[in-house]
Amino acid sequence: MDTTATEPVRTYIDATGQRLRDDGCEVRTEDWGGVPVLVGYRADFKLRWMATRLHLFTIAAPATVVTAAGLEAFSTSALDYVIARKGSLRGVQSGVAVLPALVGTEIEPAAVAWAREKQRLKFAALCRPVVVDAGTGAAAAFRGNPMLGFVYAAHLRRKLDTYFPAA
């Protein structure tokens, strides 16, 4: 993945960081193999989620060209990251979710299709990849109601809409 961040990409990622802060997330920048990556975190507990706590991470990284293969690899890395950070007790009234976003100015249609297709799962861990066209502000992600993890679906849609609003 080429990660040369253009001005529109940097601007979009900075604005995403502010939206995360405005929503009460802890926000920081981390170095992922020489690439500055925005990481936002929040935890929510709701009785209607069968009395579970959901640890939600939003991770945004620059990409010159967003491909389906690049998004899949980034999503896998992001899911592994959140499981390592907060997933040791997942399934015991605790779960983790991640919204991994690749932000670029050249988006392959296959990447958009892959992001919209479905949410990705591991045991008590949800992943909803996001593709952002920094030039237009368009954000593609799965926003449906999955069979597994359905109790979190409305919450994840609200967070997607808040952090990655429609252009």
| Number of distinct helices | 4
Which overall shape is indicated by the principal axes computed on the Cα atoms?
globular
Based on secondary structure, the structural category is alpha/beta
Helix content: 25-40%
Protein name: Levansucrase
Task: Write a short abstract of this structure.
This is Levansucrase. The protein has about 170 residues and is α/β, with parallel strands linked by helices.
Features:
single chain, 167 residues, alpha/beta, 8-stranded mixed β-sheet, two-stranded parallel sheet, globular, Levansucrase
Structural notes for this entry:
This is Levansucrase. This protein is α/β, with parallel strands linked by helices and 167 residues long. The protein has one domain. The protein is 33% helix and 35% strand. The protein is built from 4 helices and 10 strands. The strands form 2 sheets. Strands 1, 2, 3, 5, 7, 8, 9 and 10 form an 8-stranded mixed sheet that branches. A two-stranded parallel ribbon has the order 4-6. Strand 2 and strand 3 form a beta hairpin. Helix 2 packs across helix 3. The radius of gyration is 15 Å and the shape is globular. The two termini are 25 Å apart. The model has no long low-confidence stretch (mean pLDDT 87).
